[in-house]
Amino acid sequence: MTQEFEFGEEIVALRAMVREFCAEQAPESTVRTAMESELGHDPALWRRFGSELGVFGLAVPESDGGDGAGLVPHAVVVEEFGAALVCGPTLGALCLALPALIALPDAQARQDYLPGLIAGELIATLAAPTVHGVFDPEAATVSATTGPGGWTLSGGLAHVPDGASADILLVPARTQEGLALFAVERGAAGLAHTDLFTMDRTRRQATFELADTPARLVADEVAAPAVCARAVRVATALLAVSQVGGAQRMLDVTVQHVRTRIQFGQAVGAFQAVKHRCANMLMEVEQARSAAYHAVWALDSDSEIDDPDLAVALAKAVASDAFTSITRAAIQLHGGIGFTWEGSPQLYFKRATADLVTLGTGTEQVENVARLVLDRRVAAANVPEPTLT
Amino acid sequence: MFYMPSIAVQTTPDAAMVEQAARTVVTRHPPGSVPLTELMGAWYDAGLTWVHFPQGLGGMEAPRQLQPLANRIMREAGGPEPRTVNTIGYGIVAGTIRRYASPEFAAQLLRPLATGEEKWCQLFSEPGAGSDLAGLATRAVREGDGWRVNGQKVWNSLAHISRWAVLLARTDPDVPKHKGLTYFILDMHSPGVDVRPLRQLTGRAQFNEVFLDDVLIPDTQRLGDVGSGWFVANSTLADERTSLGERVVARGSGAIGDAVQLWVDHPANQSPALRERLARLWVRSEAHRLTIERARIAATTGTVGPESAITKLAGSELTQAVYEFCIEFLAAQGALMDTYAPDAVDDESGPNGIQRRYLRSRATTLEGGTSEIMRNVIGERVLKLPQELRNDKTVPWRDVPR
């Protein structure tokens, strides 16, 4: 594993490759076509990302058919997808389901799902119960019962990322013993979903109703909480990285615009009112990049550089602020073009808004930081000193 | 008979050699038991002051990246962080002297600089030339084998205790402003040098004004060509930026550490609104700290990004915001001050240390480039945005409105 923040040649090459592929195969015109389609993405393009480009298995151990390259290269892929606004189940499949599946102790389940997910053939998502962006088994809304025919699930799931396109739905559900993790197949009996009309049309959500829906147990009550907690942490860090990608792209596009837009006889980027706002945007995206990749490194295997919960909360708080702020500035600095449907800023502004309120809002993550840093310090100060006898 | 390949003599010193040299110095001259000047003199003679400098000038021609290793050994042995011995001397002067002074003159100046026996200050800014430093008006007129200098400098820290100064003066008012400046070394004991304390808003006099009245400087104390002063000065600013990259900060240290400690110490002052505000400041501080860390890694792995350009700007505004929080958190207590005595020890300590730091923090967005200038620098050098139209770059300095 590389030193924190050391982006070696392989990472640089990977980034260039993904960026080029996105520019050629998923330019903004493609994004717009996909976001206006019913499904919200092009499954054939998604398969090409998985098979032709082959970048979905970077974080998957070699024993499970992946590249075993760790979380950092996987994050770089997610960042570039965020930069290009790639339409597809990035959040559901690559951010949530993938780390959950990798963490399953059940080798058979890993073998059944991971190869398809890596190839882009199979789409999975995870409906993890969270409170303030942190996995919380108490928030589970589905219950599981076992009978002669196996397990069945009943209950409802709200705001499931990429729910409508998922072939496999990973559902944490309450059992007699606690919380276990189940896989539900698309079209299973008693499974009904409603597609939600999202503000960001490049990111889809669905709600689900489950009524005695047959399900496969993939992690028991002992393993499931850790699997889900891990998946939510990784997904949140990856979402922060994706926010960084989008923020950087909007900064680049905006800087390009103000360099070339002439008013009062000069490029508007020469005016300090404009230039200084661009400098602020750069400052924000660089800090978000530091925080987001710090979380990725902190979550990478065997790493103990930080408390993972704190690193993740920090990343999501900083990246949420940066992405929303930078896309607001992008609209403003584009002038009237920024408010049009045709302009790019509106797409990124809506993505920034969606990301802000997904997996813990920016403010909820600040609350998590307050809990983990300030409340802990106060509690530690209130513990009486041990007395010597 | 040993076969000793001649290449062994020329080998660039590596980490092991630097480490061994440093350990030898601190063993033979234990910090704390010998005078500081002896310690730092031995450090210099061993080539550890600036490891990348030539032998005999405080270096051993080792890679510059090995300097932090040497400094760490010094600190761990109970010695000072070497640069604190002569902040300006180490920060901007030494590199300039090495590059532009004759070897003899450099040898004469560098050892007492390194030991702290001769302090250094910088005479750049003027009342009429702050952000627009290249517009400065102090005149140096050639006279015999030297120069006669007249003018007024300001914001000169350490000038009252300095033996030497680096000075930027105008030698040609008839060319555009960046081209008419020359860089000098000034003996602060020269007749006509008048140092007066400048009292700042904290009440202390950390800085000075320096009046130069018919001061004579021998031409041998000119660094670089006549008219190349701007270039010489900028080459040392680059040094200063590089040396910043050597600093490592721990989580929860500095301003945010003060704020969190205050929070813990005053439970009665806590409120949900202040808690959120402090948490947001902690988040900003940590993102800033990680960005410094990332810049440091980028510098050592050879791909310097925009990280280092933004850390000064972000850090200074953050420091202010944190101390603004502290004052409000202290509530009525925040409005109290122990003393405004000009000779107070520093701008940090005392019963109202937080209030002192709050007042001092107003300087952070001014010194070393105002935040406005930093945003211009980031906009123009990093983001490659065009400069604003200017009317002062091509006309003779004499004709620029002032």
Topology:
The complex is a heterodimer of chains A (389) and B (402).
Chain A: H1 9-25, H2 28-35, H3 43-53, H4 71-84, H5 90-102, H6 107-119, E1 124-126, E2 130-131, E3 134-135, E4 142-147, E5 150-161, E6 168-174, E7 179-185, E8 191-196, E9 205-219, H7 224-260, E10 262-263, E11 266-267, H8 272-299, H9 308-333, H10 345-356, H11 362-382
Parallel strand pairs in A: 1-6
Antiparallel strand pairs in A: 2-3, 4-5, 5-9, 6-7, 7-9, 8-9, 10-11
Helix pairs in contact in A: 1-4, 4-7, 5-6, 5-7, 7-8, 7-9, 7-10, 8-9, 9-10, 9-11
Chain B: H1 7-10, H2 15-28, H3 36-45, H4 67-76, H5 87-100, H6 103-115, E1 119-123, E2 139-143, E3 146-154, E4 162-170, E5 181-187, E6 193-198, E7 207-218, E8 222-223, H7 229-244, H8 254-265, H9 272-300, H10 307-330, H11 353-360, H12 371-382
Parallel strand pairs in B: 1-4
Antiparallel strand pairs in B: 2-3, 3-7, 4-5, 5-8, 6-7
The total of beta strands of chain B comes to 8
Count of helix runs of chain A: 11
Principal-axis shape of chain A? globular
Overall pLDDT confidence of chain A? 96
Number of helices of chain B: 12
Q: How many structural domains can be distinguished in the coordinates of chain A?
A: 3
Low-confidence residue ranges of chain B = 1-9
Distance between the termini of chain B: 76 Å
Which series of helices and strands of chain A comes N to C?
HHHHHHEEEEEEEEEHEEHHHH
Structural class of chain A: alpha+beta
Helix content of chain B: 40-55%
Level-1 CATH class name of the largest domain in chain A: Mainly Alpha
Tell me the CATH architecture of the largest domain in chain B: Up-down Bundle
Q: Strand count, sense and closure of the main sheet of chain A?
A: 7 strands, mixed
Give the full name of the CATH homologous superfamily of the largest domain in chain A.
Answer: Butyryl-CoA Dehydrogenase, subunit A, domain 3
Radius of gyration of chain A: 22 Å
How many structural units, i.e. domains of chain B?
A: 3
Largest sheet of chain B: 4 strands, mixed
